[in-house]
Amino acid sequence: NSKCYYSIDNRESEREDEERDSVCVCVCVGIKNIKETLFAFPTNAIKTSKYNMFSFLPLNLFEQFQRIANAYFLFLLILQVMGLTHVSFSHLACRAFVNNKLIFSFNRLRTEKWMDVQVGDIIKLENNHFVTADLLLLSSSEPLNLVYIETAELDGSVAVCFLRPDRLSKRVCCFSKGELRCEPPNNRLDRFTGTLMFQGQKFSLDNEKVLLRGCTLRNTEWCFGLVIFAGPETKLMQNSGRTTFKRTSIDRMMNALVLCIFVFLVFMCTVLAIGNSIWEQQQGDFTTFLPRQDGVNAAFSGFLTFWSYVIILNTVVPISLYVSVEIIRLGNSFYIDWDRKMYYARSDTPAVARTTTLNEELGQIKYIFSDKTGTLTQNIMTFNKCSINGKCYGTVRGKKQHETEKVDFSYNPLADPKFSFHDHSLVEAVKLENPEVHAFFRLLALCHTAMAEEKTEGELLYQAQSPDEGALVTAARNFGFVFRSRTPETISIVEMGIQRNYELLTILDFNNVRKRMSVIVRSPEGKLSLYCKGADTVVYERLHPSCSKLMEVTTEHLSEFAGDGLRTLALAYKDLDESYFESWRQRHHEASTALDDREDKLDELYEEIEKNMLLLGATGIEDKLQDGVSHTIEQLSRADIKIWVLTGDKQGETPREILGKKSKLVQDEAVNGEYGLVINGHSLVRNKMFRSNVPKSFLYSTGAPSFLAYALDKTMELELLRTACMCKTVICCRVTPLQKAQVVELVKKYKRAVTLAIGDGANDVSMIKAAHIGVGISGQEGMQAVLSSDYSFAQFRYLQRLLLVHGRWSYLRMCKFLCYFFYKNFTFTFVHFWYAFFCGFSAQTVYDEWFITLYNLVYTALPVLGMSLFDQDVNDRWSFQYPQLYVPGQLNMYFSKTIFAKCVLHSGYSSLVVFFIPYAAMYNTVRDNGKDVADYQSFALLAQTCLLIAVCIQLGLDMAYWTAVNQFFVWGSLAVYFAITFAIYSNGIFLIFTSSFPFIGVARNTLNQANVWLTILLTTILCVLPVVAYRFLLMQLRPTINDKVFKVRQTKASPPPPPRRARIRRTSSRRSGYAFSHAQGYGDLVTSRRFLRRAPVSRSTAFSPTARSPGKFLPTGRSAGYSPTGRQSNLRQDETSLQMYRAVKDPQI
């Protein structure tokens, strides 16, 4: 354990605020002789830069040379410049970011920089200041030392949370020496254990008394804190990881292809160098009038020729290839940003491509890993159904719920006008003062950690830890049990118009293992009661045996709720004996101040008192799906994309309902296997078979994190993956953020498939970073997932457009671009190779040097960019109508090593035609006037003209979608070629730059011959004819999905509109999990004398004695669909069971 010793000098100063008399200002002397402590604590200096002045060049070059082509270009540059190469850069790409904002460090009120803060210092933070280190909160300017913080940097939540120091804060200025013992530095953001010793007393410290680095002080004028962790030991820095640069599969393939091309280039240059040596030995008669230099022989001439041809033939991979690739990616990213069909007007959120390097990867996704809450659902909970004392409420018999008149809550002036409920019998039971119904809603009004804010009389605003809790408190509010306010010792509620104050004695808070929370209160009559709510399976184990019959009935209701996709919760209570509770309370205090095994000791005490409870009933809360989720999942599944849901929820909750709505798809499509896997969290025995309404294509993986960690072990991970891959859809429940990333890495490692992870919360960040593509949802849980993602938008339904439209188009365009680019450049280069056999291997170029310069820069640049930016085989409506068009991208059918080899062979054929047809046509050919036309310059002009026209026509064959821009680029490029050719071959240019433009008059003297144009026509036909014939035969004999859709498009002008899908009511044999928080609650906070709100406004009782009759309808603030912005899915269970069995196919699915 870490120890921190410090001493305090007491000095008093008066505040300028006259409302307070005086406040103690602590002047920290600092750590007392730091060498005597057990640890040498680090300073608060943080270095987050990737480079410094000395490491920038080597690290940046290392990153750049991850792309093999850059090494290839550097080699050619060195070869051409030969010693004149120099490398320079103007500034560092990244530098250390040092925030020089000053904070107050209390050593006689001196001002220090953040980096100079040390462990043991007491610092002062002001409003909107960034918390600079991990601090023990001491005091603040707010009433009763309340502190508001924003934790967006830590968990993505933009909501303002609240903290309050313990009672020790009032005395911290009065002691002279103290000792703080705490856990060693770790990355647990949700946990802190420590004790503070002073004046012989021990005080317990936990996470609720700590301000973590990364928080921002909000709505608080100032606060004081003691530094306990600084610099790299802070929890934020302990969680920081290295972000890897993501590369697409095409990029990785290009690295391999560039190596192959370089080897092929060396082979061609070696052949030509050997040919030069042989030619020099056999045909060296020219040395009599052009003698060699001394020491130069045929072998050395071949050596020089080798490097000359390396320079000449380097156009097989020009640098313009990678420049064009980046332009294409940038353009396709803009298409995503500009897509109005992916714009969510309700929150004014457009789709954003946060990277430009992964667009084509969107067209190759095979596995999607999705979070549930906030990603597939709205994360807005509404109270839908309940079961009270064996009677089910919320189910409207004989009519659909939306066709039934809503319950009129006008009799309740404090009711939420946005809350809706359709079962009038529950309201009647409340008005008839049914004791079980009253006890049910009294529990909902008392058993929570929500905060009530009442700015004006009757307008309540609830701030709850989870959306479930907010929905339950709002439901109790509407049915007459209104939670009004709370203090550390009391909870004030209005029960059917009567103000009642309950003494809050203890909160047994929720955590991941307990899966329940309880409160112990004393009623105004002096009666002690324990109220508990939690997961049904957990609460059932702690019920009194007399509740067995009621439990059976409630279980049936829970199964019905689960079948409707509701999140369920069981409610129970227990009356306590006064003497027993006082004994238990003393033991609870001792356990809460223990430094070792504090949580285990508290859990034992909680288990002791939460026994023999009486069942009240259960609730069913609806976490509504986002619009279009089911249709999107069906579309993606038709595109052969496997969908895995990784959630912290329990089996039987919304994930199964979401994916179960694909029942039609499951029935129609074949499944590779017939087995399903269920890991239940309460036993280790094999269990019953799937019921008939569970599709055989589902895999449920639910269980404690420890079990899933075992399944993800190296010895078991393959078995887990094999089992999962037998199913169409996989649901992994109760998974932690780390396990989400491990599941993604498992699929990436063994399946060699492109993965996509999508989530909306901070607990999804690790999964988003681990996948090839990360997508963030701008939802209710902050921006952490968005900031870590590659693409972001507001609704899950936009994912189908991102993949089936933008992703497929981007992949198709990039593949067409690469195939065509390699074709035109290999054809261009191979002509040099054939010409070498006719020029004595002298490294003479076959084209004019200006044509070589402008070929990739001007003549063929815009046409291929036009195709790569605007081409589409089908429009977006046909892409949605036939999602199977997405499958070729998963199989790499548009660009692969085989496709590349075909491009090389095609280029070889075209180069033979482009070289030998003009060569044969001009051999021994004369003009109309009888003069010879067969000269080098005329042949060069003819060959390059044939080449350019042939590649432009090939581009036209590859292009499926002609636009005005494409037409302009293609025909404009040909027009520019002829214009430039006639210009640079004119007399005027020759007279100005004689040495640079030697082809004087070649254009007008060659292109005026009819046989030249016939040669161009013949060459073009011979280049294109085999391609047309091959594609025609392939379409007839082995049609692809694109060919089939093309035939359908010929018969239909547009695809039919999608059919309207009827909602199917489904039932479930398994109870859903709990509609409950997935994060540590605020129980200790609200019971530790930390006042959670400002003094309530003065008010009178909201209900009148005659409030039973309908009265005035008053708007009262927050909706029943309450949605907070923070969540954490770090769940685990103690026991698991593995159930494997054969699925039974249901003909109705």
TrEMBL record:
One of its GO terms (cellular component) is plasma membrane. The active site is at residue 371. The lineage of its organism: Eukaryota, Metazoa, Chordata, Craniata, Vertebrata. Keywords: ATP-binding, Magnesium, Membrane, Metal-binding, Nucleotide-binding, Translocase, Transmembrane, Transmembrane helix. This is Phospholipid-transporting ATPase. NCBIfam families: ATPase-Plipid, ATPase_P-type. Residues 1125-1139 have a biased composition (Polar residues). InterPro entries: ATPase_P-typ_cyto_dom_N, ATPase_P-typ_P_site, ATPase_P-typ_TM_dom_sf, ATPase_P-typ_transduc_dom_A_sf, HAD-like_sf, HAD_sf, P-type_ATPase_IV, P-type_ATPase_N. Residues 38-82 form the P-type ATPase N-terminal domain. Coiled coil: none annotated. Its EC number is 7.6.2.1. The gene is LOC108939018. One of its GO terms (molecular function) is ATP hydrolysis activity. Residues 1060-1069 have a biased composition (Basic residues). Residues 786-1040 form the P-type ATPase C-terminal domain.
